[in-house]
Automatic annotation (TrEMBL):
<feature type="domain" description="KANL3/Tex30 alpha/beta hydrolase-like">
    <location>
        <begin position="25"/>
        <end position="181"/>
    </location>
</feature>
<dbReference type="InterPro" id="IPR026555">
    <property type="entry name" value="NSL3/Tex30"/>
</dbReference>
<dbReference type="InterPro" id="IPR046879">
    <property type="entry name" value="KANL3/Tex30_Abhydrolase"/>
</dbReference>
<protein>
    <recommendedName>
        <fullName>KANL3/Tex30 alpha/beta hydrolase-like domain-containing protein</fullName>
    </recommendedName>
</protein>
<dbReference type="Pfam" id="PF20408">
    <property type="entry name" value="Abhydrolase_11"/>
</dbReference>
<dbReference type="InterPro" id="IPR029058">
    <property type="entry name" value="AB_hydrolase_fold"/>
</dbReference>
């Protein structure tokens, strides 16, 4: 494992790199609003991705690196994320297809930046469809705006809602809630199978 500090317009971000032998793609994963890159579902997804021959970068946003728990505004998150993408694609994932992903808030960032960052696919863990108890505050437009293959892994009792399938979008429902802690093996297996399938035409 290698840890990098990466300058962004909003301060340094951090990337924890987990490399697969003969990597066929790079997967960048962002954390949730109040959590870090050690979340159980991110760890499980990393395990599944490396098993599929995909390098993984767990990306810590500048506000977390600076020790703050309250997330930065969406525009700052997206700008910092794209700065990390640019550095990693140039120095570590050169000429490899990139998959964007993350859990909760990190999944939203991945969706919003997928087109500008030229991602070939998006992995969403616990996508927060709406704030708990506020279905009228839907964020589905962020998910619906993704035009590349998308996998959403969602807890069956997630209070942040359940997205529906759509064009290019698969939904896998897991036992548990927004934390996605109950079936790490299932998450690893699901991510490994999905990455293997969607990357096969690009090999």
């Amino acid at each position: 494992m290698t840890t990098l500090s990466i300058d962004t317009p909003h301060g340094p971000a951090r990337a924890e790199l987990h490399c697969a032998p003969e990597g066929r793609a790079g997967l960048l994963l962002g954390h949730g609003a109040g959590g870090g890159v050690g979340a159980p579902d991110l760890v499980a997804a990393t395990r599944g991705a490396t098993a599929a021959g995909v390098h993984v970068a767990l990306v810590e946003q500048p506000y977390r690196v600076a020790g703050r728990r309250a997330p930065a505004p969406a525009g700052q998150l997206d700008t910092a994320w794209l700065a990390v993408v640019e550095r990693l694609s140039r120095e570590w994932f050169h000429e490899l297809p990139l998959v964007f992903g993350g859990r909760s808030s990190g999944a939203r960032v991945a969706c919003r930046t997928s087109e500008e960052g030229q991602a070939v696919a998006v992995l969403c863990l616990a996508f927060p469809v709406h704030p708990p108890g506020r279905p009228e505050k839907s964020r589905m437009s962020e998910l619906a705006g993704v035009t590349v293959p998308t996998l959403v892994v969602q807890g069956e009792s997630d209070p942040f809602g359940m997205p529906g399938p759509g064009h290019h979008r698969e939904i896998v429902v897991m036992p548990g809630d927004h934390s996605l802690k109950r079936d790490a093996t299932g998450i690893s297996r699901t991510v490994e199978e999905w990455l293997g399938r969607i990357l096969r035409p690009l090999d």
